[in-house]
Amino acid sequence: MRPYTKLHWVGFKFAGVFLMAVSLAMIYSTIFFIEEYRLYSIITLDNIIIYNGKVITAIGGIPIYIYVFFFSFRTILQKGVERLKKGTLIGTIWGLFSLACFVFFMCMSWLVPLGLMALDYTLCDGEGDVPGLYYASKPELCKTIVSKP
């Protein structure tokens, strides 16, 4: 064995462990730190809707993080430092599914505001804790939004 082969092997395996840790951290932060009430107000179509497109996009990214986790796990279990020679059927299907999910949710994050405008909701600019985050069924309701401390 050449002397740098062991260093490459350690770096390769460490990169796999690092990607697994990043994937788990992103899944955890997406699931536990997204405020669910923001999605609940869109589903119920209340008088005041709290909407942030990043929340929808982050939920659509969860399958990609799952794919990266298992891809990294597979590279850790592989012998040597070569690239993966053959993909698995379930990996190919899940990869295509996760990409389609992400693209769909990305498009939805752009289409939801258009749908809210079509339903006669008005954007409350400058009102509330973040400008452009609230949609109200009547413009008078924008004045009732109180900023969070």
Structure keywords:
mainly alpha, 149 residues, single chain
Draw up the topology in text.
Elements: H1 3-33, H2 36-44, E1 48-50, H3 53-60, H4 62-77, H5 89-118, E2 122-123, E3 134-136
Helix pairs in contact: 1-4, 3-5, 4-5
Helix content class = 55-70%
For the residues shown, what is the average pLDDT? 83
Instruction: Give the C-alpha Rg.
Output: 22 Å
Low-confidence stretches: none
Label the overall shape. elongated
Please give the count of helices.
5
Given helix and strand content, the structural type is mainly alpha
Q: Element order, helices and strands?
A: HHEHHHEE
Measured by DSSP, the beta-strand proportion falls in: 5-15%
Explain this structure:
This protein has 5 helices and 3 strands; from the N terminus they run H-H-E-H-H-H-E-E. By secondary structure, it is mainly alpha-helical. Strands 1-3-2 form a 3-stranded antiparallel β-sheet. Helix 4 packs antiparallel against helix 5. It is elongated. The N and C termini lie far apart (62 Å).
